[in-house]
Amino acid sequence: MSAHSAPTLHVAHPGPVTVSIMLATVMQVLDTTIANVALPNMQGSLGAAQDSITWVLTSYIVAAAIATPLTGWAADRLGRRRLFLIAVAGFTIASMLCGLAGSLVEMVAFRLVQGVFGAALVPLSQSVLLDINPKERHGSAMAMWGAGIMVGPIAGPTLGGWLTDTLDWRWCFYINLPVGILAFLGILLFLPESDRRVRRFDAFGFVALAVGIGALQMMLDRGELLDWFGSTEILIETALALCGFWVFAVHTATATAVGKVPFIDPAMLRDRNLLTGLGLIFMVGIILLATMALLPPLLQHLLGYPTVTTGLLLAPRGVGTMVSMILVGRLVRHIDPRLLILSGLSLTAGSLWWMTGFSLTMDRWPIVWSGVVQGLGLGLVFVPLSTVTFGTLAPQLRTDAASLFSLMRNIGSSIGISLVSTLLSQYTQVNHAELAAHVTPFNPAVEMALGAAPAQAGLEAMAMLNGVVTQQAAMIAYLNDFKLMMFIALAMMPLLLLVRRPPKAAAPPADAAAME
Hints:
By secondary structure, the protein is mostly helical.
């Protein structure tokens, strides 16, 4: 293999390394969503109130978000292998403690620890996969990494529901033990240690960033519960988020001028592909998890599908994603990644437009096929986007950049879920009021639906009519959310004009290719 395309980190056995780090990644990503469906069971077992059990999710999300930017600095000081081992071991032990928790306080504390240790796993796995593969195989590596990242939102709720119904909610955490042990042993045996470099810790910059990220995540997670800006808590968290990000931005921009080393190297943000990629993955995050947050309640509450059937109907979306990633991992070597991203965004927007035509009387096939198309589209976006984002970046900056990449995806997902949930509630109320305005004694359709004049209809008939109005209002609200997601997908397309095509790596010689 030519020197130009040689991997940055040489490993004797890349296969076991890849399997080990992907096991760790899938374990962490699954835990982001696997516990969601078990919350009602946890609430009864831990004796928690309805408004306090959500801290099981909030604590994990906030801790992971704050700790993610630390990954680059910690990898430089400790070495990536050592940090990987610490993160896997800490995450696995914290998972076991979550399963053993006997009270809400214990559960929240252990979830905080789990979030802190798990934060490094995704950016570390991405940077290691890029470093152990030559440049011409970065597309295939990112396809594998992206497939692991997509497993969580797709399989997490279904797996969590099955474990809770079949065994117990505690098995949502116990299942991490064998996976964590295998990942730990694989990394210990096959991943060589990377070079360390002395790097001062910018405590002021990290605290400012942590305050901004933590306050933003708290605001997004608790906003709908507390009626958003009608709550003093939300106002305080918003102010803290704005101040934290503002202080961090000013500090980062001015630290170099006064001889200090900022927490995030400003030189990294001067890379146009990285900066554009961060914006695009933020918007992908909005679409990815927001759509997944909308579909299960739509299928279960409005269309009446049971939990198992809902999981089966959402599975083709994952199949489409996997197929797309396998194909695009090969195509990205020969086709301009920007064209692949554009094709993926077009498919994603098309599927969301298809979903704006859903109705209460449709069968299951529109759900299945729109999911397949959307999965194909997201797969076409995710892999080339990861490739072009890091394609022009210096290798020593990859771990820092990967942590920012994961952070922006997670923040986008949090904003997307909060946005669609809030708009769903508001749209439902507005639509109900508009539809109810037509339910008058003078509307012949009302009398036809009731079988009698409204004044003569009983309370049961009127309650049934109100239920139908509420159901229709909610369905329209879901369609409005799908339309918003479609516009976000379309708005991403012009940003591709800012992306430069990464330079092609030299093809491996025939003898090296044959050995592969």
